[in-house]
Write the structure tokens for this entry.
Amino acid sequence: MATIAGADAPATAKQFPQTSHFVGLNQPVGQELSLTGLSVEGTLPPEVLGSFYRAVPDPHFAPKFDDDNVLSGDGMISRVSFNADNTVDYAIRYVRTARWLAEEDKGHARFGRYRNPFTDDADVAGIDRTVANTTPVWHAGRLLMTKEDGRPYAIDPVTLETRGSYDFGGKLKSKTVTAHVRIDAATSEMFLYGYEADGEASTKIAYLIVDKDGHLTSEQWFDAPYCAMMHDFAITENYALFPIYPTTCSLERLKAGGDHWVHEQETDSWLGIMPRYGNVSDMRWFKGPKGVSAYHFMNAFEDANGIIHFDQCLSNTNAFPFIREASGIHMAPWEVQGALTRWSVDPKGDATDVTQSVVGPPGDFPLIPARMQGRPNPYGWMLTMDPQMKGPPLAGGPVGAMFNTIIRLDVAGAAGQVLDALALPVGWSLNEPVHVPSNDPDHLGYIVTIVDHQTGDNQFEHAAWVLDAGALHKGPVAKVAIPARLRPQVHGWWVPQGALDAAE
């Protein structure tokens, strides 16, 4: 039988605005919770014994401004633990950031618009304002909660207690660190970066390398073509890739109390490429199409001829409605077109533009086995929409619509082919999945994800599903209901039990 322990967030006088960012699946929950001994329907494969960590934005207090968005929510770190006795434990806690503590002290929101410190209360000036709500990162026995507007916070992987802001033993100079690191399975090194590295609207990028033991061994700075949102990047065996899309920031706009991000449809995109162990002075910039945008990348790799191929979930404009609105881009959701798109360049050739081809359908949250990071991946998984769906998608998340289908793609050729798929009915949705490798080298492993199901007006059920990564269409091999209201996650990370045991 499950045991439950929880604590509700303090009640506030101000109510949450009734916009898409705070209703339905996006309704704030604000509850720290511990559930143990949850029953599993089916049998957990031995490989999935371990913990699935999730980053969940959830505002502790109603926002200072009613036009706030999902991505401003305080970070919560969630742990779904798969146990050897075929039970599951679930826990979620707030990340006690400096911002969270400052607002908890006064009992109300004190920080203003999304990523705009000029709109904060005067008495919080200089306080670290990151909410650490985007990606849990596991490396060298350490769990970090990250968001790209600040430095990460270290988290106890068992208790989920916040250990504090993390700067790699005082070596980190950048004010920011990405939420999308890349770890080379062959070397166990972590490659990462920080944009706006020395402050808001800066063009400075810090490129970082952390060794297998967690020591920051290299930090080099360079200038981007302009200040842009750089949510993700990629590595190959020999190169580091820095994509630049025209979602831009202006210091003058921030000082006037405006939005951090505005998308510029007529501005070029760029792809910066440098040797991953080289000097930033070796960076080459390749021009991409105007006005495009991508948040997440499947992988990058070099082929036998040394050509770099970079696969990304590319769209013809910024996918976030609140950024399009701030930009004066009036497009209906169905007018936002996208596809899993491959940019190819010869890092040693004479061409200065990317070559573009489509290798998969529209969608997001692409996924490959960790061992293939930076190497050729003949296949991968991603979330998308069922083209045969007979109704609207579940509303939720920063885009406003949740995915209801997971697919496996053949991306070895010039044009991707869907090899397998699991489409959920109307009223169901999938959060970003993680991949768990199999002990059998001929087996594709397992996919772990949180599934949402709307059962009534503002009523939802949630469960953790384990799928056979090579037989998605068969549905879950194991699933466990989580008897609590869950808000959509941003990103997650899988940590096997052996790694957790070794870190204690």
About this structure: Helices lie at 98-106, 251-255, 321-327, 497-503.
